[in-house]
Amino acid sequence: MSARSLKVKAGQLRYRAMIGTGGIGAGVFFELRGNHTLGREESRAGRLLDRRDYCKLHIIAHYVQRLLGREFRTLPIGAVGNDETGRRLLREMTEAGVVTSGVASIPERPTLYSFCLVYPDGSGGNLTTDDSASSQVSASSIYAAEEEFARYTCQPAGRLEGQGIALAVPEVPLEARRAVLELGDRHRFLRAASFTSEELRDPVGREMLAQVDVLALNCDEAAAAAGLSPSAGTSSQSLAERAVKRLAEAHPGMAISITAGARGSWSWDGSSLSHCPACQAEVISAAGAGDAHFAGMLVGLAAGLVLRDAQQLGTLVAGLSVTSPHTIDVRIDRETLRAFSEGCGLTLADSVRSLLEE
Fold first, then answer.
1. CATH number of the domain at 22-33+48-162, out of 3.40.1190.20, 1.10.10.10, 3.90.180.10, 3.40.50.1820?
2. pLDDT digits (tens, 9 = 90+) for 9-36
3. Do 93 and 76 touch, CB atoms closer than 8 A?
């Protein structure tokens, strides 16, 4: 166990490594003056915010590695450009203990980058490059990394059977994400994934749900996955219940997590739906909170928690993450989570509390 990782007892780890693919990139936040929507040909003043943005795979890999420590190995498969942004991201992942041998550096493509627009009322959107290095990640990238995964986890491939997590998240092509889930199927890994709403409205994205064991969604994505059209005034709970009912009928063995910001989250373990309220925290930025929740939940599952308790750990990680302006909060570890948990308003399960012990 690392000095500041969770207190996982010897033999408690259910999963010992994670291989995953998704976007690796950075971005900046620009706050506009005025809440009216930016016009097509409008010029408007604003200011750059002191916030660092990261992409989904990097966020999840960081928290998983930091919280599980040296006994767990995390191998992201992705690509960055041969530029300063890409080199910085690789350094940061390495410093967190993440194995970066599966991240290619592509000279002719820039690192994935987003320009995030923020209105004074907190709403906003982003502009993201679509010709980045991440767009070049393919199924062959996954096949090439499979041997590396066994080598860097110091395990013969056969000894990792059933002991790994295969993760597939957005910002790389669906082809690569399908290949990771197929790798997970071959090695009996836990197959975890998230999708954008647009992908879940596409037949190819919906077909991939059959390959997923743990699905993480927000409310809009849950509605898209279940083929629902939420009407005005529909509560998050009602939407979660309806989405879970449809998804569970189509995919009986799939566990589901649905996040709803300040309204908390729901998890479905195949037999019951559990709600976990959001933490009481001063929100500085909610960007990246869904990915932090997913990461915390995967950490809990790797540490042997049942889904309901893993959801609670995910809520803690997400709750602390929103107190940071950055989409990766480098302060998060066992000690900061324990201190945060004392005033966050959650009654922790014994299994979660034991992971935070001194």
1. 3.40.1190.20
2. 867 889 999 999 999 999 998 999 999 9
3. yes
